[in-house]
Specification:
The complex is a heterodimer of chains A (about 210) and B (about 180). By secondary structure, chain A is an all-alpha fold. Chain A has helices at about 1-25, 35-50, 55-65, 70-90, 100-110, 115-125, 130-140, 145-155, 160-175, 180-195. Chain A folds into two domains: about 20-90, no CATH class; about 105-214, no CATH class. Chain B has four helices and seven strands. Classes of the chains: A mainly alpha (about 210), B alpha+beta (about 180).
Chain lengths: ~210, ~180
C-alpha cells in the first residue's frame, strides 16, 4: 500500500512537472482550461520533438479556448491536427515549411490524397502553400476533390500564387451564380490556362454546359 | 664685265644640264635593306606569341580527359540563363493588406479573431462604417497562406464570413471561415 501510494505520487508529480514544463514553452496556452492545458501542452511538445511545426497546433487550441469548447474536444482536435501534419510531411518531404504543412494538412482533411500532395510538390519548384490552400478551399466550396486536385495540379506548374487565388475566386463566383462546382472549376481552369497558353485536362464529369450569368 | 659674267653663267648651266649617272644596282640594294629591317610597329614578343599560337601542333588527349571536357561544356550550357524549359514561379512571401468585412446589424462591437491574432478578441476590433451602418471592417497585413477566422459580435455571438469558404474541420461548434492569401 505504501509502495502504491509512493508510485502514484511520483507519477502525478512527474505528469504535473511535464505538463508545467510543456506549458511553460508557450505562454499563450495559459488561456486553456487548467485541467486540459497539460494534456494539450504535452501533445504539442511531442509534435515539436517529432520535428513538426507547432504554431498551427497552438492556434487550433486557442480557437477552441476562445469558442469555449470542452477541453477534451480541444485536445482531440489538436491530436488530429498532429496526425494530419505528420501525414502532410510524409507526402511533401522533410524540407516542407510550416505553412506548407499546415496547408497540406487542410488539403488532406478536405479529402485530397497524399499522392496529390506529393505530385504537387514534384510539379512546383516553389512553395506549395497557396496551391494546397486553394485545393482545400475549392473542396470546401463544393468542388469534387478529384476535379479540384486535377485543376490545381494542372495550374500549379506555371501559375503565380496570386493567380491561383484569383482562379479560386472565379470558381466561387460561378458557383454563387448557380454553376455546378465541377463545371465552375473546369471553366475557370480553362480560362486561366488560356492566359498561360497551355491546355488543361480535367475529369469528364467536370465538363458540363455553362449556365448564363444573370 | 658683262661678257665675263655671261661666260660664268653659261658654264654653270652647262654643268647642271649634264645627265647624272645612277648605279643600275641601286634598286636591288634598297629592297634588300628594307627586307632586312621590318617596320618597328609590332614588338618581337607579340610576333613570337602570334607565331606560337598560329603554329599547327598535335595534342594528345585521353578518353577520360575528353569526357571531362564534354561534361564541363554540358554543365556550362545547362547553367546558362534562359535555358530552362519551365520557368519557376517567383517566391512570394511579402505580406499584403487584407480587408475583412462583415455585416452585423445592431451590433455594439465586432472583433475579428483568427490564426493571425491568436484568436484574441481584444487584438483586432473591427471599425463600423462612418455612416453608422451595419458594415464593419478591419484591415490586416497577412503573408501568403491559409488562415482560419471568425467574427465575434458583442463578445458572445459568432459569425462566419458568408463570402468566404467555410472551414471544414470545425470541431468547436461555432463556424469558422478560411481565407487564402496569395502573393503579389
Amino acid at each position: 500500500m505504501h509502495h502504491l501510494l509512493r508510485t502514484t505520487s511520483t507519477s502525478l508529480l512527474g505528469a504535473t512537472l511535464l505538463g508545467t514544463a510543456a506549458a511553460a514553452q508557450d505562454p499563450r496556452l495559459e488561456r486553456l482550461d487548467p485541467r486540459v492545458r497539460p494534456l494539450v501542452a504535452s501533445v504539442i511538445d511531442s509534435a515539436r520533438a517529432a520535428g513538426l511545426p507547432t504554431e498551427s497546433l497552438v492556434q487550433r487550441a486557442l480557437e477552441g479556448a476562445t469558442k469555449g469548447a470542452p477541453g477534451e474536444l480541444i485536445a482531440a482536435a489538436v491530436r488530429r491536427l498532429v496526425a494530419d501534419l505528420g501525414q502532410a510531411r510524409n507526402a511533401l518531404g522533410p524540407s516542407a515549411t510550416p505553412p506548407e504543412l499546415a496547408a497540406g494538412a487542410a488539403a488532406l482533411r478536405a479529402g485530397a490524397s497524399p499522392a496529390v500532395l506529393a505530385k504537387l510538390r514534384r510539379a512546383r519548384p516553389q512553395t506549395v502553400t497557396v496551391p494546397l490552400a486553394v485545393l482545400a478551399d475549392l473542396v470546401a466550396s463544393g468542388v469534387p476533390v478529384d476535379s479540384a486536385a486535377a485543376a490545381v495540379l494542372a495550374l500549379a506548374t506555371t501559375t503565380r500564387d496570386a493567380d491561383l487565388v484569383e482562379f479560386r475566386r472565379a470558381v466561387e463566383r460561378d458557383i454563387a451564380l448557380g454553376a455546378p462546382p465541377g463545371m465552375a472549376v473546369s471553366t475557370a481552369a480553362t480560362a486561366a490556362y488560356g492566359a498561360t497558353g497551355a491546355g488543361v485536362q480535367l475529369d469528364a464529369g467536370a465538363r458540363q454546359a455553362r449556365p448564363s450569368r444573370p | 664685265m658683262f661678257e665675263h659674267s655671261e661666260s660664268v653663267i653659261e658654264r654653270i648651266v652647262g654643268h647642271l644640264r649634264r645627265p647624272v649617272r645612277i648605279d643600275p644596282a641601286i634598286d636591288g640594294r634598297v629592297m634588300e635593306e628594307i627586307t632586312r629591317n621590318p617596320p618597328p610597329s609590332v614588338s618581337g614578343a607579340a610576333r613570337a606569341a602570334w607565331h606560337w599560337l598560329a603554329r599547327p601542333r598535335q595534342i594528345a588527349l585521353s578518353p577520360l580527359g575528353g569526357l571531362a571536357i564534354v561534361a564541363g561544356l554540358g554543365a556550362l550550357v545547362l547553367i546558362l540563363p534562359g535555358r530552362r524549359s519551365r520557368e519557376a514561379p517567383p517566391a512570394e512571401t511579402a505580406a499584403r493588406a487584407f480587408q475583412f468585412v462583415v455585416v452585423a446589424p445592431r451590433a455594439a462591437r465586432v472583433a475579428l479573431v483568427g490564426d493571425f491574432n491568436d484568436w484574441d478578441a481584444a487584438r483586432t476590433p473591427m471599425r463600423p462604417s462612418q455612416r453608422g451602418g451595419p458594415v464593419w471592417t478591419a484591415v490586416l497585413p497577412l503573408p501568403p497562406g491559409r488562415y482560419r477566422y471568425a467574427f465575434l459580435v458583442d463578445g458572445s455571438r459568432w459569425l462566419a464570413d458568408p463570402t468566404a469558404p467555410a472551414a471544414r474541420d470545425d470541431e468547436f461548434g461555432p463556424p469558422s471561415s478560411v481565407v487564402t492569401v496569395g502573393g503579389s
